[in-house]
Amino acid sequence: MLLNPEDLNQISQRTLRHYEDRAEEFRIGTLDHDVSQNIAALLDNIQGPPPYRILDFGCGPGRDLRVFAARGHQAIGLDGTSRFVEMAREDSGCEVWHQDFLALDLPAASFDGIYANASLFHVPSQELPRVLADLRAALKAGGVLFTSNPRGSNEEGWNRGRYGAYHDIDTWRGYVERAGFTEITHYYRPAGLPRDQQPWLASVWRAAK
């Protein structure tokens, strides 16, 4: 079903309100999550000497943004939830942009890497080609995009107050490749568990030169 502008605005506003209302609860609940595998998957695949200019897309309260900055990279956060933007700025000391995922305004060819951890699944499939194109344009030639999303069987809709699209690897690959990326690798998380206990699909992509 085609989503009209009013539908898309409602998706954004309701999803962002969900996070605004639970910002501190979310911060505490995710503070100790170990995503070192994901951070390494991005940084290890960026070509050229560090430090790198990194966009933490959907940075939330700033947990991973702080890690990038501590490692000496020029890290910039982006989130649509105003409370998360405040938290991330305070916690990391980094620049953080307040932008809706469906209304991005990103500088062209600016980033060595974009880290989209648990964020792009909130973009409706209808809008995903446009958003991925925006991210592709914001990367330098050969730059790297990391994504991690809850995997599924291509179902989409409301889930406990948030809008989500839950793709399998083949469908996700199609979207990202059509946006001008080449796959480097993908894997499922948490590591070391049977597939039915790995709800997260992580993937790493290189922007075409």
Low-pLDDT regions? none
**Helix content estimate:** 25-40%
CATH first level: which class?
Alpha Beta
Quote the distance from N terminus to C terminus.
35 Å
Number of strands: 9
CATH level-4 homologous superfamily: Vaccinia Virus protein VP39
Helix and strand content put the structural class at alpha/beta
Which secondary structure elements does this structure contain, and how are they paired or packed?
Elements: H1 5-21, H2 23-30, H3 36-43, E1 53-57, H4 63-70, E2 74-79, H5 82-92, E3 95-98, E4 111-117, H6 128-138, E5 139-150, E6 155-159, E7 162-166, H7 169-178, E8 181-189, E9 200-207
Q: What features would you highlight for this structure?
A:
single chain, 209 residues, alpha/beta, Rossmann fold, 7-stranded mixed sheet, two-stranded antiparallel ribbon, 7 helices, 35% helix, globular
How would you describe what is shown here?
The protein has 209 residues and is α/β, with parallel strands linked by helices. It has a single domain (5-207), classed as Rossmann fold, CATH 3.40.50.150. Helices cover 35% and strands 29% of the residues. It contains 7 helices and 9 strands, in the order αααβαβαββαβββαββ. The protein has helices at 5-21, 23-30, 36-43, 63-70, 82-92, 128-138, 169-178, and strands spanning 53-57, 74-79, 95-98, 111-117, 139-150, 155-159, 162-166, 181-189, 200-207. The strands form 2 sheets. Strands 3-2-1-4-5-9-8 form a 7-stranded mixed beta sheet, with helices on both faces. The chain has a two-stranded antiparallel sheet with strand order 6-7. A hairpin with a 2-residue loop joins β6 and β7 (162-166). The longest helix has 17 residues, at 5-21. The radius of gyration is 16 Å and the shape is globular. Residues 54-143 form the Methyltransferase domain. GO terms for molecular function: methyltransferase activity. This is SAM-dependent methyltransferase. It comes from Bordetella genomosp. 9. Keywords: Methyltransferase, Transferase.
